[in-house]
Design a protein that fits this description.
With 413 residues, this protein is an alpha+beta fold.
Length: 413
């Protein structure tokens, strides 16, 4: 009988080719929260800009070459103050021509009146016929009409000469300059913009789905609150004055103007407009760290089954209430969800509840604590019924789930 013996040096090679024993995945401890229904009063915040109620684009009523501009951007002007001037040489010549024409017409009128008076006396004495008197009367009427026309033309030329000086109609502040000396301007060309003194508006844009709600606030005094940049403790009442009838072609948002009255806020200053939404009862709130995005959907990890495992549950997010996410659909009170470390879990992964030392683990039959007893700060910080322990992180089977926001990412880390 022949016996085949393997060399001792080949034994390690055979052992290296064998399949390693599978490593059992550790059971991760997770921080969780037992859901309960509550009420929510969302507050929408929009970036706004303070603008003048009326901002006029001023220009000359006649054409000409701009020879002088007396104000600059930011200058305060008073009503009747000169702002700019164009070359008035041609208009002054036209003014003189019109005056001469008016003087000539007045002289012709005086001659016609004298002639009519003489011919009227001759007619009374019978030296001329009635036809001749009527002819002289018609000449007098024509001379009178020509005199009136000449005087009106002279007035027009006087106005044209006066229009060469641009004067502020009201008091305000110059917000922009559109033309410089030396430019030849047409009648009506904008030279500068003047924000009139008086009430101010907060101008902001709202998305299409909230335009109807803002339009419902039209004319309601103090329906909005304005918070100026750098003055977080000061809120000014505002009233919706105007909502655009059509959406902007580029942004698809509706422009809203809110009256804030006469205020010390500077033109162009940045502010925030706060709109309180109606109180909604029976909503569920979660810490931001509990919600993540996967496959284009907002989801949470729901604890379910025995042994305890996580299941991805799509949810509908209604908005934010402080540091909490308001859930509009997908969850119901009594369910338990993971509130931290959502990026390290996979579908169907077995987990266990983490409890702080000396705190009993919650069970589905355990009554849900009142949110007021927990405190909004504890709920917002993700301190619910249980919490995570340090353990190795494993990636999800379908790719890692990304947190819903930077705040959620920071909380989950």
């Amino acid at each position: 009988m022949r016996h085949h013996f393997l060399p001792l040096f080949a034994l390690p090679l055979l052992l290296a080719c064998s399949k390693p024993a599978p490593v059992e995945e550790p059971v991760r401890a997770v921080r969780s929260l037992m859901l309960q229904a509550g009420s929510s009063s969302l507050q929408h915040e929009y970036a706004a800009e303070v603008r003048a109620r009326v901002e006029s684009r001023l220009g000359f009523r006649v054409a000409g070459k701009l020879v002088r501009r007396m104000v600059n951007v930011g200058d305060l002007v008073k009503a009747g103050q000169p702002l700019a001037q164009i070359d008035a040489s041609d208009y002054k010549l036209g003014q003189e021509v019109a005056r001469a024409g008016a003087a000539s017409a007045d002289a012709q009128l005086a001659l016609s009146e004298a002639e009519f008076k003489r011919y009227k006396d001759l007619r009374e004495q019978g030296f001329i016929s009635g036809l001749e008197l009527e002819r002289r009367e018609a000449a007098l009427k024509a001379a009178r009409a020509q005199a009136e026309q000449a005087r009106a033309q002279a007035s027009v030329q006087n106005n044209q000469a006066a229009y060469t000086l641009l004067v502020a109609d009201v008091s305000g502040v110059v917000t922009a300059v559109e033309a410089e000396p030396g430019a030849v301007l047409g009648a009506g060309a904008v030279v500068l913009r003047l924000a009139q003194d008086g009430p101010r508006d907060a101008v902001f844009s709202v998305p299409e789905d909230r335009a109807a709600g803002v339009r419902a606030l039209l004319g309601q005094p103090g329906a909005l609150k304005l918070r100026a940049w750098g003055a977080a403790d000061t809120l000014l009442p505002a009233t919706v004055r105007e909502v655009a009838a059509a959406a902007d072609s580029a942004t698809r948002t509706f422009l809203v103007k809110a009256d804030i009255g006469a205020t010390a806020l500077r033109l162009g200053q940045t502010a925030s407009v706060l709109i309180n939404a109606p109180v909604v009862a029976g909503v569920i709130k979660l810490p931001m760290s509990a919600v993540f995005q996967q496959g284009g959907q907002s989801k949470v990890w729901r604890l379910d089954g025995k042994p305890l495992a996580v299941r991805a549950q799509p949810v509908e997010v209604a908005g934010a209430d402080g540091n909490l996410v308001v859930i509009a659909g997908g969850l119901s009170p009594g369910q338990e969800v993971v509130t931290a470390g959502v990026h390290a879990l996979t579908e169907g992964q077995t987990v266990r509840r983490y409890a702080e030392p000396g705190v009993a683990l919650p069970t589905p039959s355990t009554p849900v604590r009142d949110a007021a007893a927990v405190g909004p700060a504890a709920v917002a910080a993700g301190v619910p019924t249980s919490g995570p322990a340090n353990g190795p992180a494993t990636g999800p089977a379908n790719g890692p789930a990304t947190p819903a926001s930077p705040a959620a990412a920071g909380a989950s880390r």
